[in-house]
């Protein structure tokens, strides 16, 4: 190990010498390099002294490997929340997650002001089904406080064997006390894409996570939606739902964006040296949806790859971004493999949108702010119109003469409409009485989602203005 470290230091010293101006720079450059190298060796010597003291004088025998790994973790904790040392278990776990199948609770978490915060529960996971919500603050894991626990330590505590139970205690805004959720770890198979047709002509595509073949899933969904809408006049708009999508693979973010853009930049990254930028461009080949109006839904739990896609769509004026301001995770991480079992996740750059906007700690601000409102609340608080219309007046004229048969059918239809409205109202009132857990598990229907319906309205108005300007 010491020999390898020595070679690394010499390699760094050589690189610094070259960057200063070459091997023939002279004594001034060499002195600077030697000063940096000496300073680093002195600091490493300090670490060696402390390690020796602990190994030789601590009242019990210690595991040196454990001490060194602890020191490395401490070093990484001085950086940003997304940089971390990956031990054997964490490294294996990270590789599993990008494949779309892994064991666990299904929680995306972050740390803010020393608190462990839920970014989003992954759909259909144990955490999602139990009713844990974005913004919940995890204060206990198996009845042990999370105060002073690092993000990586907390994640490690939540991991375990499939089938094992774990108790998560959370504090929720505007609610008193600690809510305890008993979860059972399980293999989580994520189907990243769900889709449906809304109002006969509008495609709704929800992407839950950017994992391998996510773009392929969206393409298949769009093709099927086009077939289903053919009989009703064709596809008139697409709603891409990235709400509570925590991100994932950058390559998939580029592929998803490429479906909706003809060409141009998707995202660029700026590292330590602002002059060295990596630019990722739209893929010009493959399936494209360039003509239909597009609305992208985001919220405060839309992060990372979700922000890359929505930022590119917004900058290129391809569609409307709707919802609430996104999470703001705009840093780039790379996983450096140390050996077959361990690695380091390190923040190396920041993402920028095609127009050079930085996402980190800012997020994507939607073009249209639409609050997430429960459909039950909207339906129950909608005012019934009680105005008198021309058709209510006695002996009113009709545009055409209504036959007795037509009148009969009209009255039957109106009676059925009133009955249907009453039944819906009863159902909504009944659902409102259910507890949160049951409400959380009600099958999602985009046709009853307030934000989705607002997206449809915007697309319809866009279509109307386009016809008016012809």
From TrEMBL:
InterPro entries: ClpP/crotonase-like_dom_sf, CtpA/B_N, PDZ, PDZ_6, PDZ_sf, Peptidase_S41A, Tail-specific_protease. Residues 91-159 form the PDZ domain. Residues 394-439 form a coiled coil. It holds the Pfam family PDZ_6. Keywords: Coiled coil, Hydrolase, Protease, Serine protease. GO terms for molecular function: endopeptidase activity; serine-type peptidase activity. It comes from the Bacteria. GO terms for cellular component: outer membrane-bounded periplasmic space. The keyword Coiled coil applies. SUPFAM superfamilies: ClpP/crotonase, PDZ domain-like. One of its GO terms (biological process) is signal transduction. Belongs to the peptidase S41A family. This is Carboxy-terminal processing protease.
